[in-house]
Amino acid sequence: MLIIGTLSQLLMTGGTERQIVHEFDSLLTVADIKTQSAHIDQAISQEITLARLCTVFARLALDRVCWTLWNGFFQRRTAHKRDW
């Protein structure tokens, strides 16, 4: 893997990048050109998906606990009123 760093955002047409690689070594071929940000996003996409899924399940669990606590409090309060 060859990584070319620049100070500015290049247009992702591949022309300039391919020319730089060809000047570096004419036997190398360019298979994929993308920004560092896109490369990182692709590398951690599975982890991001898993984190989002865990967040959904955690929210469901929290909602369930809150609903159970609220329901228990409300039932105790209404039972207490009936005793009077």
Helix-strand pattern: HHH
User: How many separate domains?
Assistant: 2
Helix coverage percent of residues?
55-70%
Strand content: under 5%
Q: How far apart lie the N and C ends?
A: 79 Å
Number of strands: 0
Category by helix and strand content: mainly alpha
What integer value in Å does the Rg equal? Answer: 28 Å
Shape: rod-shaped
Largest sheet, in brief, is: none
Nearest-integer average pLDDT: 81
Summed up, the helix count is 3
Poorly predicted sequence stretches spanning 5 or more consecutive residues? none
Write the SSE topology.
Layout (H helix, E strand, L loop, with lengths): L14 H10 L11 H8 L1 H39 L1
Describe the structure using short key phrases.
84 residues; mainly alpha; 2 domains; 3 helices; 68% helix; rod-shaped
Provide an overview of this structure.
The protein is an all-alpha fold. The chain folds into 2 domains: 1-43, no CATH class; 45-84. The protein is built from 3 helices and no strands. It is rod-shaped.
Brief write-up:
This protein has helices at residues 15-24, 36-43, 45-83.
